[in-house]
């Protein structure tokens, strides 16, 4: 079983913010946004908003959702489900694990 | 959403208008558990989003299908009957009928008016020339796009949101753009004088000629359309003109049905009009709160929230409280966001340096609290501010002004006990 890719230290991602991991690291079509919820947990979604070109890693993370920095579409951190217009498509989620203060990403694996 | 069944079970709801307000109403009704008949009547080919009409749709980067508010299969999946390319001729609230153009009649227990508005056309002589455009619908944008060829001389009348965005888009397409507005700088009430000046001067930096004047008359000229601007000796000649001078609310159906209208369809906090069987949402509405008539919001997000409130009213659920207005505008490659009412602020705090390629924000304060904010390329500042406004967080001017301050940390400060009594 894969151990995942070590992509960041937990402390690199402030509470309520995100960090984009380049696709050259993740091997995915899009960059992946690591998003740290207000309760401290880390989630991962495809970084590009499904509405227009905006980085969800630059969005506002709070109470289980990330809000797009351009037009405020919100996505559920756990499963990427879109919560409101203007986006209508869900964001793709990826599995994340935190071990000893290090963040490991499993690109393409469901959380 | 918690359901509280009201006196009568609603089984038939008709929404008139498929803009963001109408579509949001439909979506919120379904997500809130409404399982009766739901009909959405719209004049267009399908409901589409309007903000890109002055930007990516005007340049041709996006086509109409890219602007669809919902995917084509969404309506069937949600059991929403979409009557596209259909006009409503009249509504009869007392008998619960909606009469379509062509004579067909729909029965409705409740009607939601989401009729939007049209572009305002001021009484300027010569305005009916075919080279004078407005920008409200996809058809308007397509017609204007064909005029925006490189080198075309374009006059944009009005430097508010639509005018400024259109001027920026046209300049980007290589047009020779003159932007005229009687106010300089425009948008001061929304973003404060500093940011208003900076944004307006950006037009000049990007090759748009700004003129502080009004247009007195248009007249045909051998080489185009002549526009006489106030204070100028000779008219200027253009290939095309765009009016961006505001909207006229579509209140015709409401007025004909005898609903109270006063510069818009008057609604209560739950979006109900003066007739209990008719609700209204979005651009044409004015909310009356504690006897005071608010101005029309005319913003995208406000229309979406109206839809959620109308759905809550129809479902007998708790109606969400109106939040501070929020809007965005994109011009010359910068993303501007605004929240709240800057005109209410008695002092302003600037965070960051206004500079090309940089980011900065302005916070408007009143009685020790943030009441408004505006930001250039710093949406996080506005997102923080809107939460400070909605949660009544005390403002620390010095901390706000310091770009090194983590605004999220400021937000975590608890409101003082006396602040709990926000209306």
List the keywords.
heterodimer, A: about 110 residues, mainly beta, Rieske Iron-sulfur Protein, 3-stranded antiparallel sheet, globular, B: about 425 residues, FAD/NAD(P)-binding domain, Enolase-like, domain 1, 3 domains, 5-stranded parallel sheet, monooxygenase activity (chain A), Rieske_2Fe-2S (chain A), Non-heme iron oxygenase ferredoxin subunit (chain A), iron-sulfur (chain A)
Structure description:
- The complex is a heterodimer of chains A (111) and B (423).
- By secondary structure, chain A is mainly beta.
- Chain A has one domain: Rieske Iron-sulfur Protein, CATH 2.102.10.10.
- Chain A is built from one helix and nine strands.
- The two termini of chain A are 15 Å apart.
- The model of chain A has no long low-confidence stretch (mean pLDDT 95).
- Chain B has a five-stranded parallel β-sheet with strand order 3-2-1-7-19, covered by helices on one side. In chain B, strands 9-16-10-11-12 form a five-stranded parallel β-sheet, with helices on one face. Chain B has a five-stranded antiparallel β-sheet with strand order 22-23-26-25-24, sandwiched between helices.
- Chain B has helices at 20-31, 56-59, 74-77, 138-147, 161-172, 188-205, 252-256, 300-315, 379-391, 397-401, 407-411, and strands spanning 12-16, 37-41, 81-83, 88-92, 97-100, 105-107, 110-113, 117-119, 132-134, 153-157, 176-181, 209-212, 215-221, 224-229, 236-238, 240-243, 247-249, 265-267, 278-280, 285-289, 292-293, 326-331, 334-340, 347-351, 360-366, 369-376.
- The model of chain B is unreliable at 1-7 and 418-423 (pLDDT under 50).
- Chain B has three domains: 12-118 and 248-315, FAD/NAD(P)-binding domain (3-Layer(bba) Sandwich), CATH 3.50.50; 132-245, FAD/NAD(P)-binding domain, CATH 3.50.50.60; 333-420, FAD/NAD-linked reductase, C-terminal dimerisation domain (Enolase-like, domain 1, 2-Layer Sandwich), CATH 3.30.390.30.
- Chain B starts with 11 loop residues before the first strand and ends in a 12-residue tail after the last helix.
- Chain B is built from eleven helices and 26 strands.
- Helices cover 25% and strands 28% of the residues of chain B.
- The chains are: A mainly beta (111), B alpha/beta (423).
- The A-B interface holds A 14-17, 58, 60, 67, 69-72, 84-86, 88 and B 20, 23-24, 27, 49, 69-71, 74, 301, 304, 326, 328, 335, 379-380, 383-384, 406, 408.
């Amino acid at each position: 079983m894969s151990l995942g890719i070590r992509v960041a230290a937990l402390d690199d991602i402030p509470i309520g913010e995100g960090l984009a991991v380049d696709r050259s690291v993740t091997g995915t079509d899009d960059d992946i946004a690591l998003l740290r919820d207000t309760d401290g947990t880390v989630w991962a979604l495809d970084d590009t908003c499904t509405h227009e070109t905006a980085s969800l890693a630059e969005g506002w993370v709070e109470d289980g959702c990330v809000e797009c920095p351009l037009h405020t579409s919100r996505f559920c951190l756990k499963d990427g489900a879109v919560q409101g217009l203007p986006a209508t498509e869900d964001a793709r989620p990826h599995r994340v694990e935190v071990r000893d203060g290090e963040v490991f990403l499993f690109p393409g694996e469901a959380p | 959403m918690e359901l509280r069944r009201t006196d009568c079970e609603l089984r038939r709801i008709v929404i008139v208008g498929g803009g963001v307000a109408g579509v949001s109403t439909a979506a919120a009704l379904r997500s809130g558990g409404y399982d009766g008949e739901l009909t959405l009547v719209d004049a267009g080919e399908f409901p589409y989003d309007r903000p890109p009409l002055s930007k990516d749709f005007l340049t041709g980067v996006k086509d109409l299908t890219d602007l669809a508010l919902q995917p084509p299969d969404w309506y069937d999946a949600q059991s929403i009957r979409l009557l596209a390319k259909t006009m409503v001729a009249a509504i009869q609230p007392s008998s619960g009928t909606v009469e379509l153009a062509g004579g067909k009649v729909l029965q409705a227990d409740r009607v939601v008016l989401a009729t939007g508005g049209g572009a305002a056309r001021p009484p300027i002589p010569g305005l009916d020339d075919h080279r004078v455009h407005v920008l409200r619908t996809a058809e308007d944008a397509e017609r204007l796009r064909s005029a925006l060829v490189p080198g075309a001389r374009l006059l944009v009348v009005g430097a508010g949101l639509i005018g400024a965005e259109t001027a920026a888009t046209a300049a980007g397409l290589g047009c020779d753009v003159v932007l005229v507005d009687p106010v300089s700088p425009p948008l001061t009430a929304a973003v404060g004088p500093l940011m208003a000046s900076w944004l307006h001067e950006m037009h000049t930096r990007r090759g748009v000629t700004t003129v502080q004047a009004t247009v007195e008359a248009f007249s045909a000229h051998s080489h185009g359309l002549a526009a006489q601007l106030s204070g100028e000796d000779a008219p200027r000649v253009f290939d095309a003109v765009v009016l961006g001078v505001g909207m006229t609310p579509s209140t015709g159906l409401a007025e004909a049905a005898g609903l109270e209208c006063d510069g818009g369809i008057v609604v209560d906090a739950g979006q109900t009009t003066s007739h209990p069987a008719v609700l209204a949402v979005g651009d044409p509405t004015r909310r009356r709160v504690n006897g005071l008539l608010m101005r029309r919001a005319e913003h995208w997000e406000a229309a979406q929230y109206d839809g959620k409130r109308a759905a809550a009213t129809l479902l007998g659920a708790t109606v969400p409280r109106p939040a501070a207005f929020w809007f965005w505008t994109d011009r010359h490659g910068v993303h501007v966001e605004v929240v709240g009412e800057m005109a209410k602020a008695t002092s302003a705090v600037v965070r960051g340096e206004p500079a090309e390629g940089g980011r900065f924000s302005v916070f408007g304060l009143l009685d020790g609290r943030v009441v408004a904010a505006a930001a250039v390329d710093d949406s996080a500042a506005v997102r923080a501010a809107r939460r400070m406004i909605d949660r009544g967080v005390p403002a620390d001017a010095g901390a706000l002004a310091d770009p090194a301050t983590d605004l999220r940390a400021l937000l975590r400060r608890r409101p003082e006990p006396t602040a709990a009594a926000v209306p």
